[in-house]
Amino acid sequence: MNAYYCHHFVLPLPDGHSFPMAKYARLHERVVGLAPGLGVVLREPPPATDEDLGRAHDPGYVRAMADGTVDPAVMRRVGFPWSEAMVERSRRSSGGTMMALRDALAGEGIAVNLAGGTHHAGPARGGGYCVFNDAAVAARYVQAQGLAARVLVVDLDVHQGDGTAMIAAGDETLFTFSMHSARNYPAVKPASDLDVALPDGTGDDAYLDALAAHLPQAIDRARADAVVYLAGADPFVGDRLGHLALSKAGLAERDRQVLAACRRHGLPLAVCMAGGYAPDVDDIVDIHAATVKSAAQHHRTLAGL
């Protein structure tokens, strides 16, 4: 199974910034150690081009972000200082999901982006640590390549996927399913095709019951050829930016439910890591690494190994 990484394209941040940039290098290190036993091949993705990004974003926004003329108010909403390195990192993160979804559709069945899940980026603005929306960019990429007509985004980050919802609005070929904390960022939540808002403190049993009830609805309604799955680590109990209370075991079961549903329906999928803000970065890495392990087992099952 291919796993795409871009941790070495570092997003420079000031000291004390709240975004856990270190998780990406530590996740890559963990996956390197696991790769031989899991059958994982680590690959560097190409950058998403202006053409790739322009299928999901306003070309003027892409140009302004690329050349540094983006409105400072937009960058405040993103939460990062602008830099060329930030733009390159964001292109590579989108490229990872593009390549993972391409691989899944080209016969692999599943592939992983060790970054991605930047679902707060909308058509003409970023937000919430998200510059470009990799899930939407990847969906539009495989559609342009003739690999898929319809794509389902299964967004299980703790925050609602507002940017993806805005990009997909009025587009029947891109179905958005978001299951998230009700009382959390963003304050204004544009409607996804299917939104499931959960109360504070939702734990494993209630979360998994909700997923079991609503994921089949999303699959049936989407009539998709492929899935992009945002496997956020931030529903974890104690996450600094989440209000849910899932255990690591509950999050692993969440992943198994999504993968099993895709397997039953013959749906290729790309998996990206999305958010995670636990005080101990090792907790975030544990959750993301478990997602990679589940994806690798899914790949082995599809291959009959």
Give descriptors for this structure:
single chain; 305 residues; alpha/beta; 8-stranded parallel β-sheet; 10 helices; 8 strands
Write up what this structure looks like.
- With 305 residues, the protein is an alpha/beta fold.
- It contains ten helices and eight strands.
- It has helices at residues 22-38, 50-54, 59-67, 72-78, 84-108, 134-144, 162-168, 204-222, 248-264, 281-302; strands at 2-4, 41-43, 110-113, 151-155, 174-181, 194-198, 226-230, 269-272.
- An eight-stranded parallel β-sheet has the order 2-1-3-8-7-4-5-6, with helices on both faces.
- The model has no long low-confidence stretch (mean pLDDT 96).
Q: How many runs of DSSP E, i.e. beta strands?
A: 8
How would you state the average pLDDT, rounded? 96
What's the alpha carbon Rg, rounded to whole Å? Answer: 17 Å
Q: Name the poorly predicted regions.
A: none
Count of discrete alpha- or pi-helical segments spanning 4 or more residues: 10
- How would you describe the shape? globular
Strands ordered across the widest β-sheet: 2-1-3-8-7-4-5-6
Strand content: 5-15%
H/E series, N to C?
A: EHEHHHHEHEHEEHEHEH
Structural class: alpha/beta
How is the topology of this model organized?
Layout: E1 2-4, H1 22-38, E2 41-43, H2 50-54, H3 59-67, H4 72-78, H5 84-108, E3 110-113, H6 134-144, E4 151-155, H7 162-168, E5 174-181, E6 194-198, H8 204-222, E7 226-230, H9 248-264, E8 269-272, H10 281-302
Parallel strand pairs: 1-2, 1-3, 3-8, 4-5, 4-7, 5-6, 7-8
How would you briefly describe this protein structure?
The chain has about 300 residues and is an alpha/beta fold. The protein is about 45% helix and about 10% strand. It has ten helices and eight strands.
